[in-house]
């Protein structure tokens, strides 16, 4: 009889460590604490996911991408593959796959971001643990979890969640490569950056200085090999980054959708010009020569410049920051002509996409506050207060798309952005300085120092990029800033704690860092006096208590106690984390929650970005492009309705259902059910039914697709029979590319009016409703806000 001998070095199933038990080389509390942080992250990111709403620009593409694999690859805005998004489609691929699996629902599009968020937190924990130990990793994970913008980011169906995960994975791969000097993980880092490029384009490359420095400084191989490895990784990274653009470029134009954001149908123009150079227009950089639609946006330059066309009716005037390009104004409710604003004809604000312009209709102030207000929140009929809140309050508080304290070189310290991501600025800065100075003289491969190089370079690079470029109310951009801040908080507190316990002059740096960070946090909290009014005093009290306890437990004092020192450390952590925690927890508060721009707390309710008096009152409900309603409450601080492109539930109104039924019944052999003058007019029909609607002019309304000749060919070939005119035309009024009357969309509109026959609303049982009340996106010219939508039937001319 054979005898089985158990190898004592191989654990049996019964002896395997439970998943909630820490590894033998870690403290017993490490794994349970990580599991708690992970579960809390999943709860915060997924809370209310069943009440998610569609991002009505991106969600259209996600819906189209579920209709065909061609649309999936190209990121087509419409199911008929006429035109792409104005972004690379990589960030939408997980959303489209989720929708294919679970069906097209708002929560199905949000779910991938939740998963990406939890994964990002776990990767951050892993990187910091390898760098500075378990305790630093737990602090970093908690800090990232409790950063408001991280909570808002991973609840939002935008580009940055996948991008954040990819650059974190690139950092983790670079860390492994730097420790071993091996090429393979460094190449993998290049792959991750390339995938991040598919999500966020050139912004993904901003992490490269940090990654390259880490490997160049610390890899334990010769300099020649280090340079060669970096070069090979860069080649792979560039190839992965450019793969989609090359595929589009090599595909004949007739076999693919038109590339949005461009005048030359080029993917490179869309990425380099439209989505990159345009962001730095305030520095005098123009993207016009790249073949892209050239936009003038607020950024890092001189706030307070003047944009003017004419103050006459039909022109409008934009006063605000930016580079001074001429642009047609926005049409207010009841306005006529191109961009005339009711009462004054002016659009006043703090930036080209300025916030705070208000017009008077029957004595009532209304706000048009950039994307956050006029576009995100639905416009109200004449005589009513806009859903964005009191105009005077918005004008004072600022903060619309490119406006207020989200403009200029100091924007990162402004309350609307700092309250979402900047609570730990002082601690991070002190950690970088001490981490580099105190590790002088260490070997080149010193693991602790190189970690501070990684996170310090990462933070500095993105901080400068966002300071110089346009942020424009997109709070979720700050997620990539929250990553190094959290890591530096973990590594920094660990470093300073060790110095504190060692005694000497360095021991006083920890109390000083806590005092500075608590004072900064109290200041930020004080900028929102009606929101959690106890918060600023609480931060101050905790900061003082922590400093006092740390001073009493100072190692240089006689009979200093370890328990007292630990109490000081606990008070320090509470002092620096209580304020962002209080903001992050607002996702559970139905009065605040989070916005489609990634903001949590009172900034989440201020779609225009103003922070003045965020106390909410009963609000009006406006109609969003998706056919849904705005988010309800509004007040002096702003509104919860809408975001970039609006957020709706994708339900068609009664009139829209009737119009769709009529055009579908009379479609015949036509390819398109109908064409319409903007993406936001097409959006409800694509979201609700996935029908083939042809949007004109792209996202801005100024893309020359289709041309008048191409449009007429569609009609004459029988591919198009109906055209829906009226309503907004993208956001073309906000872009400084010249006369709106010269756009292809305007020429097509004029041709349809002269060559086609209008269909009375009574023919399909509808009513002539205001386009601005239907879409929430006013546009320039006679077809702007307040104009009725009219259906036209076009007959082929043989």
Automatic annotation (TrEMBL):
Residues annotated as domain Glycosyltransferase RgtA/B/C/D-like: 88-244
Pfam family, one: YkcB_C
UniProt keyword list: Cell membrane, Glycosyltransferase, Membrane, Transferase, Transmembrane, Transmembrane helix
Residue ranges, annotated region (Disordered): 296-403, 599-649, 769-789
Domain Putative mannosyltransferase YkcA/B-like C-terminal: 659-754
Extent of Gly residues compositional bias: 297-306, 363-375, 599-612, 624-649
Protein origin, superkingdom: Bacteria
Membrane topology: Multi-pass membrane protein
Any one GO MF annotation of this record: glycosyltransferase activity
EC number of the protein: 2.4.-.-
Positions with biased composition (Low complexity): 307-316, 376-396
Spans traversing the lipid bilayer: 29-47, 131-154, 204-223, 230-250, 422-438, 450-469, 475-496, 508-525, 531-552, 564-585
Locations listed in the record: Cell membrane
Protein name as catalogued: Glycosyltransferase family 39 protein
Organism: Streptantibioticus ferralitis
């Amino acid at each position: 009889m054979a005898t089985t001998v158990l190898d004592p070095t191989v654990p049996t199933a019964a002896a395997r460590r439970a998943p909630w038990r820490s590894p033998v080389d870690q403290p017993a509390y490490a794994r349970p604490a990580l599991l708690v942080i992970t579960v809390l992250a999943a709860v915060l990111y997924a809370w209310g996911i069943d009440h998610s709403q569609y991002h009505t620009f991106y969600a259209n593409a996600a819906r189209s991408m579920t209709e065909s694999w061609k649309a999936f690859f190209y990121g087509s805005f419409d199911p008929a593959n006429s035109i792409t998004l104005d972004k690379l489609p990589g960030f939408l691929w997980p959303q489209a796959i989720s929708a294919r699996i679970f069906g097209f629902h708002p929560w199905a599009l949000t779910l991938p971001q939740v998963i990406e968020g939890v994964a990002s937190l776990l990767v951050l924990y892993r990187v910091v643990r390898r760098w500075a130990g378990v305790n630093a990793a737990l602090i970093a994970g908690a800090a990232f979890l409790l950063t408001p913008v991280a909570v808002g980011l991973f609840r939002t169906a935008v580009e940055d969640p996948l991008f954040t995960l990819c650059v974190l994975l690139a950092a983790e791969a670079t860390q492994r490569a730097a420790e071993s000097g091996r090429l393979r993980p460094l190449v993998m880092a290049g792959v991750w950056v390339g995938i991040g490029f598919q999500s966020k384009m050139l912004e993904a490359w901003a992490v490269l200085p940090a990654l390259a420095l880490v490997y160049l400084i610390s890899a334990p191989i010769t300099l020649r090999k280090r340079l060669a490895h970096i070069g090979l990784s860069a080649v792979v990274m560039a190839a992965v980054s450019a793969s989609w653009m090359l595929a589009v470029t090599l595909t004949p134009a007739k076999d693919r959708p038109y590339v949005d954001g461009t005048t030359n149908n080029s993917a490179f123009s869309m990425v380099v010009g439209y989505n990159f150079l345009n962001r730095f227009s305030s520095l005098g950089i123009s993207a016009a020569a790249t073949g892209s639609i050239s936009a003038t946006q607020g950024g890092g330059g001189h706030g307070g410049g003047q944009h003017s066309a004419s103050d006459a009716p039909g022109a409008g005037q934009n006063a605000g920051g930016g580079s001074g390009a001429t642009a047609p104004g926005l049409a207010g409710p009841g306005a006529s002509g191109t961009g005339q604003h009711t009462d004054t004809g002016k659009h006043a604000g703090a930036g080209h996409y300025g916030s705070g312009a208000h017009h008077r209709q029957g004595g009532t102030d209304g706000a048009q506050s950039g994307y956050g207000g006029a576009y995100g929140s639905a416009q109200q009929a004449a005589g009513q207060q806009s859903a964005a809140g009191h105009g005077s309050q918005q004008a004072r508080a600022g903060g619309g798309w490119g406006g207020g304290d989200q403009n200029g070189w100091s924007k990162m310290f402004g309350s609307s952005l700092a309250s979402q991501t900047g609570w730990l600025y002082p601690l991070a800065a002190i950690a970088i300085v001490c981490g580099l100075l105190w590790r002088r003289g260490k070997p080149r491969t010193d693991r602790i120092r190189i970690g501070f190089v990684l996170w310090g370079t990462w933070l500095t690079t993105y901080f400068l990029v966002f300071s110089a470029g346009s942020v424009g109310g997109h709070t979720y951009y700050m997620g990539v800033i929250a990553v190094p801040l959290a890591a530096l908080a973990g590594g920094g507190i660990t470093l300073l704690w060790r110095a504190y316990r060692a005694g000497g002059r360095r021991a006083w740096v920890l109390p000083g860092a806590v005092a500075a960070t608590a004072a900064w946090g109290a200041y930020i909290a004080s900028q929102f006096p009606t929101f959690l009014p106890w918060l600023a005093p609480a931060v101050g009290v905790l900061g003082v208590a922590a400093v006092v306890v740390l001073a009493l437990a100072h190692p240089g004092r006689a009979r200093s106690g370890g328990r007292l020192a630990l109490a000081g450390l606990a008070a320090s952590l509470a002092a620096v984390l209580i304020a962002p925690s209080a903001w992050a927890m607002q996702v559970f508060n139905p009065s605040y929650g989070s916005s489609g721009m990634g903001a949590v707390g009172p900034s989440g309710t201020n779609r225009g970005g103003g922070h003045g008096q965020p106390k909410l009152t009963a609000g009006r409900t406006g109609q969003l492009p998706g056919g849904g309603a705005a988010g309800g409450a509004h007040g002096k601080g702003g509104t919860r309705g809408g975001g970039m492109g609006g957020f709706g539930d994708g339900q068609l109104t009664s009139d829209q259902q009737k119009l769709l039924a009529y055009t579908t019944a009379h479609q015949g052999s036509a390819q398109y059910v109908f064409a319409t003058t903007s993406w936001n007019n097409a959006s409800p029909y694509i979201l609700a039914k996935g029908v083939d609607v042809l949007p004109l002019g792209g996202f801005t309304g100024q893309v020359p697709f289709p041309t008048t000749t191409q449009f007429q060919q569609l009609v004459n070939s029988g591919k198009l029979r109906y055209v829906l005119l009226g309503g907004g035309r993208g956001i073309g009024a906000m872009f400084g590319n010249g006369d709106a009357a010269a756009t292809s969309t305007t020429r097509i509109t004029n041709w349809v009016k002269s060559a086609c026959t209008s269909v009375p609303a009574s023919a399909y049982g509808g009513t002539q409703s205001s386009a601005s009340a239907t879409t929430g996106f006013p546009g320039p010219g006679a077809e702007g806000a307040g104009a009725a939508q009219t259906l036209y039937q076009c007959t082929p001319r043989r």
